[in-house]
User: Fold this.
Amino acid sequence: QATRQAGSRRACGTARSVAATGTAGMAPAVRMTRRVPGVLLFGELLADRFPDGERAGGAPFNVAHHLAALGRHAGVEPVLVSRIGRDARGAMLLHSLRKAGLATEAVQLDPVHASGRVDVKLERDGQGHRFEIPAAQAWDFIDPDAARQAARARRPEWIYFGTLAQRGASRQALRALFAATRARGFLDVNLREFPLDEDVLRWSLGRAEVAKLNAGELLRVAEAVRMRGNCSTTLGKGLIDAFGIRWLLVTEGANGAWLLDDCGARFNTPPTRPPASLRDSVGAGDAFAAVVMLGLLHGWDVGECLERGNRLAADVCGLRGAVPDDGSFYDPFMADWGLQGGAAS
Assistant:
């Protein structure tokens, strides 16, 4: 962690000296090489159970789905590392992966535990929701050896991971994944009803080059790791300094998002425009994370990452669930962002 933090600090001067060409004069992100970096996404693959039916979900699946759709002409091939049961729900989840054009090679089959599910409880206005997540589901038991093999086969440059999948035995598989590669970490904090595990939080923050969380999670995480401060910016800077994080992303729903970098700069977006027809906000944060990850792969500047992430997140709120049934949903984004022919403008 100390080595990564020192290297990140050395890069600050270079980043600040680059003439900005993007939104609001913001410094560019790391530029993509000719080969699109590989991305492994680790964690829960499950069924979101809405009042009107089940849909494939889980933050890693949602992010992988968006990445595969938006990056298909640029060679982006995200690989999901998860575990499902040998049951009808597992068959549905595999079908959803294949329909989205995602590889299934790193999805393990569990002969004992059932495929995961989450009961989604929607608020009447559609803007809020809560999850009821049963314990001991298949994705809680991801095998370390198989995860390690996936890392060695793909040699990813990024690993997307969250905190939820570390509530049980799968945390050992995630550690094996990082031990088998030199990949950079994209941490998507997703605190649910489970007690905060300080060791898990500290380990996760220490592996994160990019960390995303919402405003409420920022306060909870800062308190859990004994971070003191009287405002969100102070807390964010404290986390960056303590754990060597390069980008700290904080989402605030309809109020947009903001980012702190390891050079001390803060970038903000305006409030998010609501979709024409609001269905639910499930997966909005995952859509935002996917676009930021895509921006890192393509070298978008900070402003583009934030504004484009907010735009996709807002439109996802017009869907039932976290991802669309029809791939044409992505066409306007691909056209506006120059993704149709493989060039990312």
Q: What stands out?
A: The first strand starts at residue 39 and ends at 42. The mean pLDDT is 86.
